[in-house]
Amino acid sequence: MNKFYLSLGSNLGEREKNLARAMEEIEKRGVRILRRSSIYETEPVEIREQGWFLNCAIEVETDLPPQEFMNALLDIELLLGRRREIKYGPRTIDLDILLQGDTIVNTPQLTIPHPKMAERRFVLVPLAEIAPQVAPEQPLPLTFQVTLVLDVPSTVAVNC
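Predicted structure:
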């Protein structure tokens, strides 16, 4: 079995229902959700003129290898109405693979660990909640990385 950590986000429509429906669709594909973080409301980062996001992280287990699992996640995004019209723009659902153990994947279609996760408070805080022991390609423990990110002034506000 392969264990993955995912980030989920939504800022269009019924955001909380979008997250719940995404998790249901993930489970329908034979993926077992092991842990779920709280849901956090966060300000958009790249394009600020859009609605705030709801974000969470989940730990899952599946027999699927990384690329097949990513393809399944992309299918779920499409099913839930995701349209990739504007990079970093509004979306009904965003499903990202953050980590898969110590696995490193670097292809044109998929990069694991997620290349921007260490810069994103909306990813690190939920991930640290469910997996404080995880250290993604960094010499520092994740809980310390989150502390560093939280200490830096940021345009991202995390509300619990």
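Summary: Helices lie at 15-28, 66-79, 121-130, 142-151.
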